[in-house]
Structure formats: structure tokens, C-alpha cells
Amino acid sequence: MVLIIPSIALPRFQILKFSNYSFGINPYFCALTNYTNMYRTHHCGELTISNTKTPVTLAGWVKTIRKFGSITFVDLRDRYGITQLFFNESMTQVLETAGIGREYVVQVEGNVQERSNKNPNMATGDIEIAVEKYTILNASLTPPFTLEDETDGGDELRMKYRFLDLRRDAIKKNMELRYKVSRAARNFLDAQHFMEVETPMLIKSTPEGARDFVVPSRMHAGQFYALPQSPQLFKQLLMVAGYDKYYQIVKCFRDEDLRADRQPEFTQIDCEMSFVEQEDILKTFEGMTRQIIKDVSGHEFTDDFPRMTYDVAMEEYGNDKPDIRFEMKLKTLNEVVKGNGFSVFDDAELVIGIAANGCSEYTRKQTDELTEWVKRPQIGMKGLVFIKVNADGSFKSSVDKFYNEAHLKTIATTCGAQAGDLILILAGEKNLTRKAISELRLEMGKRLGLRNAAIMKPLWVTDFPLFEYDAEGERFIACHHPFTSPKPEHLEWMRDKSKYADIKANAYDLVINGTEIGGGSIRIFNKDIQELMFEALGMTKEEATEKFGFLLSAFEYGTPPHGGIALGFDRLCAVLGGSDSIRDFIAFPKNNAGRDMMLDAPGNIDAKQRKELGL
Fold it and tell me: 365 with 481, same domain?
């Protein structure tokens, strides 16, 4: 039998009697003690062969409908899994009369029976439900894209109908992974006696890094709050207050250009500790990362996470977040290649190369394609030089006119190239060329299958510069943020402007598979040193007091040594899920233009609101 329930036919409140219980129930909400859920006895992922002949009630969404003559099979889906429903000849006739479609919400009653065509790829693949009664709880329009792992919906369409996209198993697994990461982090931090403390979302704008999102105040016309880029100042104030182990899984906001691993609002695992040095921070959060990876993926690390200084990372990998799943280290070639009449090398500020293992058989078409790849605007190089080290030890290059066999052998030795390898060389302005060869290294790693998402390679990068020089602004800016402490041995250099470029920060980043997962530092906790930092950044005393007077005041009331770290929660989830994009690990993300396609936000506000806000 079939029962279609229109919502308007249900009374708002009614008295029901079941067994020995009598109580009031609103059909739209059921949360009463000693009451069996009226819609289902089991979910769609739990029934097995041991439940055979058990009468059950299931509820969920119609995933697929398959008709075979006089019988019908329907896959019913809920959050927990899929169960096959079997409609015999008489029930199929009822189905045809009543109508049923994909994504209809239905309830069925029937008995569990063994399937004749078992599906070993399904948790419930040994059984099916012989349906005796079903109820259409709500009909559905035909979805605008298929709700399958391999969907035919583009990004914009899926984001417009995100409530449907979230039904797809691939996205559901991402959401489950996100929850597991959150739970593992909280369990670890709780065991280490951290306390979760919420910090404000409406704060003062103190622009130093990315642009703030600002919120106009109705009660204070012409004035604005800012949404926090991080809880940095609040967590330091909590250390002043004596809460020596703080954490928060918190939303942060930055008005910056977007890409695959950025969103205007994102989530951090934000942590701070008092009476600690750098080593305490690294050990604590290496432990947390180990625990999260173990709980989520089952992988256990037996060795300590390797450590690398910023200078080594830049020299050997060309960036401060090295992917150490493969070697292919950068080799500077200036001294080896200059003086042979090849102006591209002779006039270059930097000549640098990598050796790609086993690629000497690359065709002219393949090397030409790589040349075009490095010429793309986002890479910005004018060309690419290649040297093939043939299997017999001979050489073939695009610069044979300028370099003889002996010269090419010297280059190969410097690059650590072996027989069968392909040497790729870029030349030009120092910073551009180093960045380009770093990107080329990653691209070659991808093409050679060396960037396996199933492999986890964590790394600590330490000893970052404290400052970098902003030529446009003609001043030094903080590489991390203005509250990062210099290395103790460089503390005195804070009083000597000529030393700014040499000062190392007491800072560290956690990198996994070439993605920066988190960063932190030991903080400045002395008022005089904090004032020196503000001075180095070009702030007058008046500006520093206006922006950060509350912090400087707090430092006069017994501030302990402290430090911390913030891990990008969305990025960590994406890395553990084997993805380059964080969007599919966020329930309701924005697109690359920062728009919410589902809500059509940002949007306009009406004239009355504008007037109230003084806009």
C-alpha cells in the first residue's frame, strides 16, 4: 500500500497512544523519552545478513530506480549508507500508480531478505528490503545535476545547489573527515589540559596583514568594527590573564584574493601556551598532528618530523613549504655555466636547474610543451634549457652550440644527474627564477607520479626572517606578524636598523606534502621590545598606542613568556582527504570571486538600512 502525506493535512498537535505510553507529539518534532522514532527503526547503512526476516522501517531519499519487467529495485539513501528495496509485482503496480522519482523522500516498511545478486562493494550488499508498505513523505524536482561521485555538475552549479551537492557520497565523506579531524584535535588538546575559550567576532581594525572585512556600527555612526583575521591579540591577552593553555576552533576572515586553498572565511585550530620555548610548541603540536593523522587515516609516524631552516628550504626547494615526498633538489649553476658566450646564462642573475629522474627519453614535443609551460604568465620565464643524459652516458642538449661534452658533464655532476635523467635549467632575475624552478619541480613531480596523496610527509620549517623590505612602501614589514619575537641571539639587533634584514624570527611552520598547514611563533612579551618592533615597522608611538594601546598596557601587568600556533583546519582536512582544494571540505563555501552562489551574497541592503548605518 502507499500513503502520500501532504504536510497541510497533519494536525499541529495530537495525542497518540502506543503500548503503555500516552503523550503529546508534534509530527514535525520527536524527542520524547521511551519513544521509538516513528519514521525509522534502522538507518540505511546498518542492516546485514544477520537481520534476515526482521521487520524494519526505513526512511530516506530515492537514489536510483531500476525496473525489471514486473518488479522494481530502488536504492534508498540516508546519511549512513544505501539499502536496496525490492518491490514485487503488486507493489510495483502501486508504485506506477502513485509515481516516484529520484530524490523523493520516502518511508518503507518490510522484511529484510537475502539478496540474490549480492554487492560486495556495499556495506548492506547482502540484503534487501521486501517492501510491504511505503509512504511518500515529500516529492522532489529532478535535480539539476546527478548526485553521484562523478557528477555532471560544474562548480558554479553545484555551489548554487549546495544543499543537493552535500548529499553526494564524496562530499559526505569529506564532511565526515572534517568532523573526525575536529574531534581528534579536541580530544588531544583536552587530554593536555587546554581550555577552549571563545573570543569576539566584532573587533577593532588593525590592518597589518591582509585586508579586514569591516562592519558598520549603527549605534556609533561613521565607525566600524572589523571581523578578526585571527584571534592573535586575544589569545595573547588570555596568556596575560593566566590561562596558560588556550585553544579554539575558530572562524577567521581575510579580504584577499582567492584560490583553491583560500576562502574569505576559514577555520583555524588556534592555540597558545605560556611558560614555553619553541621546542615545547613543536613537540606538543607534532603530537597533536600525529594523533589527528592516526585517528583519521590510521597512519602512525615512528620517526620525529624532520626540521629544515627557511634558508635551506629556499636554497634546495625554492619555497618555504617544501614537498619532501621526492628529491629533485634545486642546484645553482652560475659558476658552472657562465663564460661560454651564451648570453642567456652570462647575463642572468640566477641560473638554476633540476634533474628529473628517468626522463631522458622525453621527445622534442614533450620538451617544447615544458618550454611553453614555463612561459605561461603565472610562471613568467622566457624559455627553458634542457640537457638529456642518455643511457650510454652521452649528452644531448638545447645548448650544444655553446657547451661541449665536458661542460655538459660538469653541469650534470653539479645537478646530481645520472644516466637516463633530464636536466631542466632556468635563468633570469633571482626571485622570479627561483620561484619558477620551484613550480617546475612540483609540476615534474606531478607528471612523474611522485606527489602521491596517500603518502604523508610532514616537516617543520624554522628560523624565518623577522622582516622583509617593502620597496614600494620603502619600509620593513613583518614577515609573520608584529608580535613575533626575534631569536634570542638577535634581540639586540632590534636596535640597529642596518641589521633588520639579518634578524631571524623565533617562528616555525608545519608543512605537509608541500602545503603550509600551520604557523606560529614565540611572542614578544616585553613592552619595550614590542615598542621597538612597532618602531621598526614605521609606526610612531602615537600610532602604536592608537592601534595596540590595550596590548602595550597589558604588558605592564606581568606578562609570562608565551607562544603558539594556528593550524589551517580546512587545509589540514584537504591534505588528509588527498585534495588540493579546501572548498569540498567546507559545508557552504564561497566561489573564487568570494560569492556565495546559493545565497547570492554579497548583496545590496535597502535604503532604510543604509540610512541607519550612515552609509
Answer: no
